[in-house]
Amino acid sequence: xSPRKPLPTSIRRTVRYxxxxxxxxxxxAVTLAGCASSAPTAPTGGPASAPxxxxxxxxxxxxxxxxxxxxxxxxxxxxxxxxxxxxxGPVTFTVTNVSATGITExxxxxxxxxxxxxxxxxxxxxxxxxxxxxxxxxxNLYCPGAATxxxxxxxxxxxxxxxxxSTQQLLAKGATDYAAWVVSQTEEMQTSVKxxxxxxxxxxxxxxxxxxxxxxxxxxxxESDVEGFVLPGFKLDDSAGSLDYRIDxxxxxxxxxxxxxxxxxxxxxxxxxxxxxxxxxxYATDLVANVGKxxxxxKTLDYKPEDLANGAASLLEExxxxxxxxxxxxxxxxxxxxxxxxxxxxxQAFAYLQPGLEKVDASLAEQVAAEFKKVDASLAAYRDDTAxxxxxxxTKANREKHSRQLSQTVLALQQPLAKIAxxxxxxx
Length: 428
Description:
Layout: E1 12-13, E2 60-61, E3 64-72, E4 78-81, E5 85-87, E6 89-97, E7 106-110, E8 113-118, E9 128-134, E10 137-142, E11 150-156, H1 167-202, H2 205-221, H3 223-226, E12 229-230, H4 243-248, H5 263-273, H6 278-298, H7 305-323, H8 335-360, H9 362-380, H10 396-417, H11 420-425
Parallel strand pairs: 3-6, 5-11
Antiparallel strand pairs: 1-12, 2-3, 3-4, 6-9, 7-8, 7-10, 10-11
Helix pairs in contact: 1-2, 1-6, 1-8, 2-5, 2-8, 5-6, 7-8, 7-10, 8-9, 9-10
């Protein structure tokens, strides 16, 4: 992929491969022609039904249909819509977590694609909003951790047009749209690391641990985008200049000449040492700066379709090599949370390629989509809404008990997914 404009002088880009980003800014406005579909399917959950509160079309205000979504602890956790449908066009979802400690995120989905989302929705926080532009069709609000996780939502009026154009045009559009996701996810990461730094500066250990867990998902979705970025004045093999090292250096990859820095140095202090020191505060300050540099870079990038495919494959390799083994979150044991967001990242990269891939090899596209759903279903069995990060703590005992099954499920996805890059790179 090539930069849209010259990179800032503060960063030099060296590309190995690209991966996925998926996320939403505080208020996300996206034009989504072609995103609606019939019978979308969320990763997990029971029947596509849930308490929905009111009925009928949502009212329109300020040019957008207004839909309220309340999260409560009733009945094991519920997601309640005040309206079950809206007219085609911009729709603003206002999400309020009233009392649901086990529900911390909401996604609007169409098939495998996440059209909008809000995360870190703790009870008692002010309402959060996201806005998307929708064509007529069927969608789902996905509330992981709710007693019933899928809430159907209907948009009336003209259906969003099916993707049109040549195979190359469809693939190119997917890559362009994907670039916007990467930027928005990095922006969310920047916000989250500032919150982490603030919690650390306050000296509140429990608050800092929570902020750490809340920040990690944004990085995991775009993890491979960091690899290959080197600060000016450094050689490619110099850890001191690598943004990947500066942001996500693990204990297993520690360069003694450079020392600790980034997320996992903070993780060690919070979860192993159990103390916030002046050094911890410096780690947090440096992390904010390095994520800011990453954001400068991703705003300049263009992607080729094969970059998305290679990046998705890379995220699955990351799952197998670092998440399942417990190497990633050695001190906090949040590896299954990281696992889930690596998978989500790979899934979104695939979803942006899917319209074009269906023209190239429809059976392969169908196979990969089915395997993603199997991985999601497998992961759902390990959710623990009482745990930090929302998943079973990935201790040695739990790894020994569950890692083989998870690894086999991911492998079944890796094999067909690995074929996509060549397919899209050589598409006519």
